Every structure is written in C-alpha cells, then in structure tokens.
Amino acid sequence: MTRQQLLAYCIAQKGAYPDHPFGPDFDVVKVKGKIFAQLFDLNGTPMLTVNGDAVTNDFHRVRYPDAIRRGWHCPPVQQPYFNTIDLTGGVPDEELLAMVDFSYRYIVGKLPKKVQKELLTPELL
C-alpha cells in the first residue's frame, strides 16, 4: 500500500482531516485536533506512525520486527504509545489498515463521550 493510498484511507475516517504542522512533506491526519496518523519519508522510505496503547503496539513490533519500531520521532517516555511502520517492510495491507483503524479509535476514545458518539458507530463505542 502506498503512502498516498494510506493518506486517502486515513482522511476517509469520519471527522478526519489532513494537516501539515511539520512542513509540506509531512502529512498529519487529525480528528478533532488530535493526531492519529503521520505519513512521511525517512531517508527516502515511506513511513507511517500511528498511536495506540503500549501492549498492542508492542505486539505489532514483535510480530513485524523488521518493519515496525517505536515512534522514532517521539521522546522516549512516549515511544511505547507510537509505532513507526516502514511501508516497504512487508506488513500486509490489511494489517496496515487495521493499525490505522485502531489508532483512530484509540484517539477518538480519548475525546468526550458526546464526540465519541458522533464519530463512532454504536458497535465501536
């Protein structure tokens, strides 16, 4: 899956929108002002960073050790809550989309309940 395809998928999430607070080459996708995905090139390699809980993120890093690492751009204390994924590293497309979905739900889950109800379908609440 390409960076552009992933960006389009991220933006298609309810309430999601692109932003570029770190420059034009660093795509950030937010929902209600909160970042849930970041797409960028690192030394010419397309990358995706997503949010999540430490246990789930560690599971993905163990499952794909050559493609997923702790958030490379985060301070050490925040790294367990972010995964940076090499988009050329062999993570199946379905897994990438599932990680984006999880990150979106994880961030929406931190928003007020009223906003959560607006953004998520009842089965995801």
Please give a structural write-up.
By secondary structure, the protein is of the alpha+beta class. It contains four helices and six strands. Strands 1-2-3-4-6-5 form a six-stranded antiparallel beta sheet. The radius of gyration is 14 Å and the shape is globular. The mean pLDDT is 92.
Give me a quick take on this structure.
Helices cover 34% and strands 26% of the residues.
Index terms:
six-stranded antiparallel beta sheet, globular
Ordered list of secondary-structure elements with their pairings:
Layout: H1 3-11, E1 16-19, E2 27-31, E3 34-42, E4 45-51, H2 54-63, E5 68-70, E6 82-86, H3 93-108, H4 113-119
Antiparallel strand pairs: 1-2, 2-3, 3-4, 4-6, 5-6
Give the helix tally. 4
> What is the mean predicted local confidence, pLDDT?
92
Structural class, from secondary structure content? Answer: alpha+beta
* Largest pleated sheet: 6 strands, antiparallel
Percent of residues in beta strands? 25-35%
Overall geometric form: globular
Alpha-carbon distance between the two ends: 28 Å
What is the string of helix and strand elements?
Answer: HEEEEHEEHH
Round the Cα radius of gyration to an integer and report it: 14 Å
Poorly predicted ranges: none
Helix content: 25-40%
Number of strands: 6
Across the major sheet, the strand order is: 1-2-3-4-6-5
- The quaternary organization reads as single chain
